[in-house]
Amino acid sequence: GSVERVVLHPLQFSRTDLGANPHPVFVALAGAVWGCVLPLGVWLVARGLKWKYAVLLRAFAGFCLVANGAYLGAAFILPVGDAADLIRLGVPVWAFAVPGILVFGAGLWVWDGGSLGVCRLSNEPGPVAHQNTHQSNRRKMHVK
């Protein structure tokens, strides 16, 4: 298709309006899909290369997953932007809202480092180790 207008206004959803769109469903979903896949891929590459600032990319990737997941997942309640377009095009709400909710959860999981604890950001994957805290405290109390 051809680009008719690009809207970049701080009080509106940014968007690109196409004059003739041969694949409107694909275009409506592409923003959210690429907005998740690209940051996640960049973070995974940086993590694999053991880049010391990969934690920043992880935070950004988690944010992108949470934002895009919330945007599509909230379509049950508030269909706006691409979600409203998808509904208008005949796509059932559950077909993008349910994956949106799952992507939102995946974003929280990325922020959390892959554990099931409280959201935290560090360079270390997995849960924070607390197993020796109790023993250390007990030793301190019995010291004479």
Keywords:
144 residues; 5 helices; mainly alpha; 6% strand; globular; 2 strands; two-stranded antiparallel ribbon
Brief description of this entry?
With 144 residues, the protein is mostly helical.
Major sheet, described briefly? 2 strands, antiparallel
Q: Give the uncertain stretches in residue-range form.
A: none
Taken from the alpha-carbon principal axes, the silhouette is globular
Kindly, what is the distance between the CA atoms of the first and last residues, rounded to a whole number of angstroms? Answer: 80 Å
- Work out the helicity level: 55-70%
The strands making up the biggest β-sheet line up spatially as 1-2
Helical/strand content category: mainly alpha
Structure description:
The mean pLDDT is 80. The chain is mainly α. The protein is built from five helices and two strands; from the N terminus they run ββααααα. Helix 1 runs antiparallel to helix 2 (54-73), helix 1 crosses helix 3 (82-88) and helix 2 packs antiparallel against helix 4 (94-112). Strand 1 (3-7) and strand 2 (15-18) form a beta hairpin. The protein has helices at residues 24-48, 54-73, 82-88, 94-112, 133-141; strands spanning 3-7, 15-18. It is globular and about 45 Å long. The protein has a two-stranded antiparallel sheet with strand order 1-2. Helix content is 56%, strand content 6%.
